[in-house]
Structure formats: C-alpha cells, structure tokens
Amino acid sequence: MFCLRNSSSRFITLIRSSGQLWSSIRMNVRMSHSFVANDNSDLDIMKIFEQTKPFITNEMKNEINAKILVQISGENFLLDFRSKKPLQMNQIDRKIPENIDLILLLPDSKILQRIIKGELRTSIAYLAGKLKIRGDKHVAFRMKKLFNTLKSSSF
Questions:
Q1: How many domains does the chain have?
Q2: I need a surface site. Which of 23, 74, 100, 111 has the fewest CB within 10 A?
C-alpha cells in the first residue's frame, strides 16, 4: 500500500483499502455460494422456520418485539415477534399487511438456510445484494442477534 504524509493521500489510501475490502467480500460471497449443496434445491421454507422455533426464547421475542415479513422467491412469510402475542410463523398470500415493521427480501431459501446455519453472515449477504431490508433498521439489528443465537445452537 502506498501512503504519503498529507491528508489527501491518507484519503486515497483509505479508498484503496475499502476497495480491497469490497473485493474480498465479493470473493467470499462467490466462494461460499459455490459450497451450497445442490441436492435439496426445493427446500421447504416453513420447515426451516419451524426448526428455529425451539431456539427462540421469550426474552429474545420480547427484545425483537416486531412484526416481520420475509419474502423468499415471491412467497411471503409473516413472523410475529410482538411481545404481547405468542410467537407466530405463517405463510401468507401475496397481499402484504400494513402494520409490518421490517421486510426481509431473499432471492431463495438457500440463502436463508445459510444465514441461519451461520455459513453466511447477514452483513455479507446484505452487501452482496442477497439480502435486502425494508423498514425499521433497528429491528434488523435485533434480528441479527436472533441469527447469531441460531448459529451458535445445534441447528
């Protein structure tokens, strides 16, 4: 790396460093994406959600305290983590309810499975365009804690 003493060169060095970081992130996503098993191409998304239910505690549900829509390949799944109601995970029709706090958009169920298993970090998926977020970003950060808990469990 090349660095001069004035402040503009430090800025150029920083830009070069961030460019190298972005290149390594793209490389990591491409490489990790190639390790996905092709044998289960038609994953049952509701089955994935049902497997996560035992690992979600009331404390975690109360901390998230939001209504989240997960849209995967055009299918909508409603996750209700509001504290005053029991945890609900349902597939819904294409009409999106109005009182949604967060919408997570994923291209396919393999990405969701890799995030839950800890094979793909949410930040990397977001930067690579594999995960799109609409709505309250604070809820998204609280969901990250849920994904970290699922990763550390024997899911």
A1: 2
A2: 74
Angle, CA of 27, 9 and 20, to the nearest 5°: 5
Torsion of CA 49, 101, 108, 150, to 10 degrees: -40
Beta-carbon contacts of residue 101 (< 8 Å; ≥ 6 apart): 66, 67, 68, 135, 136, 139
CATH of the domain at 54: 3.30.1050.10
Asked whether the beta carbons of 65 and 101 are under 8 A apart, the reply is no
- Residue 131 near residue 106 (C-beta atoms within 8 A): yes
Both structure tokens of 15: 């830009």
Length of the chain: 155
Q: Do 98 and 132 fall within a single domain? A: yes
Per-residue pLDDT of the chain (155 residues; tens, 9 = 90+): 444 344 444 444 434 444 444 444 444 443 333 333 333 333 588 888 888 888 888 888 989 999 999 999 888 999 999 878 888 888 888 777 889 999 999 999 999 989 988 899 999 999 999 999 999 999 999 988 888 888 777 55
Cβ-contact 114, 151 below 8 angstroms:
no
pTM recorded for the entire structure: 0.67
